[in-house]
Amino acid sequence: MELKKRIYTNEDLEKWIDSPSYNDLIKFVCQLQDSVTGLPNSTEVHMSPEVSKILEVLESIENAITNNPVVHEKDISRFGKVEFRDFYDQVEKDLPPLLEQKFDTKGKTDELVGYLSESFGNRTRIDYGSGHEVNFILFLFCLEKLQIITENSPALILQVFKKYISIMRHLQKTYWLEPAGSHGVWGLDDYHFLPFLFGASQLATHPHMRPKSIHNEELVEQFYKDYMYLECIHFINSIKTSTKEGEKLSLRWHSPMLDDISSAKSWMKIKEGMVKMFKAEVLGKLPIVQHIKFGSLFECPEGISDHTESVDDHDSCGHVHETVNTWGDCCGIKVPSAFAASEMTKIQKHIPFD
Hints:
- By secondary structure, the protein is mainly α.
- The chain has a domain at about 5-190 and about 285-340.
- The chain has 15 helices and four strands.
- Helix 3 (about 50-65) packs parallel to helix 7 (about 155-175).
- The chain is globular and about 50 Å long.
């Protein structure tokens, strides 16, 4: 069955939020979150044959980055590298036989490929955001529906999702992926949401670490490999804390929302709050969910029309801009890659006449 976008209007959005598909996805995410409560990345977890096969698929995808290097390394454009499209094309070509080799897809290969390939960003715009991240969760969700995954093991987060984020960092760094619908300083991260949601759960029962610990650079440096939330902070610090003059900027300056969240009384409060925020700011936002596709494994909510708008009703991103978007929503405003901005700063420091 071909995957199709179905959510175009605010009425569609309301039906989506009140649907079994929405509730099933939230339940799945919460189960994954709960599975890693108190568990650092280094925890030894049971690795089923299926989990090992998913990791092999992800390893093959990461190899495609190496096979499609950036040719114009000296191109100083602050926007995405066009070689990303070559990577994307190879992944789309390689995935169908690879998934069928690894799993009994029960004739649903196209749906699995659709979610997994889309989880690495948009080929045309060369961007990436929390909506693409949702596609990876939908890929795992569909594997569960096919009974390829039979339990919400911690390995799905500590091994599989962690590997996925590692690949995304590789892609972002290599091809300078632009943030899709970035909220600028008013978002958690230019690219991700779910590492914060799962990462807060990892820290929820920590006996010593407190939310304000994210401001302790030495502590973040020491533990970022063990906790996803701290890895996100470490990543942000590595590309956003230095100005052209070398001045260090605090989270309060470039990531005020993370700074505000750090004042919470406990990581458990943050864990709970992240689920509420995921519902409101990701799955409850039309500019994000209008990109979600439905098929036979993840079904479209009842009552939503099979829209047949003409091409004139759409823009180049392939959906309808029915409402007036706020700053940075959706894809109407191009935002330079954070990696590009960081690299440009390094380049400028070596210009003798600057």
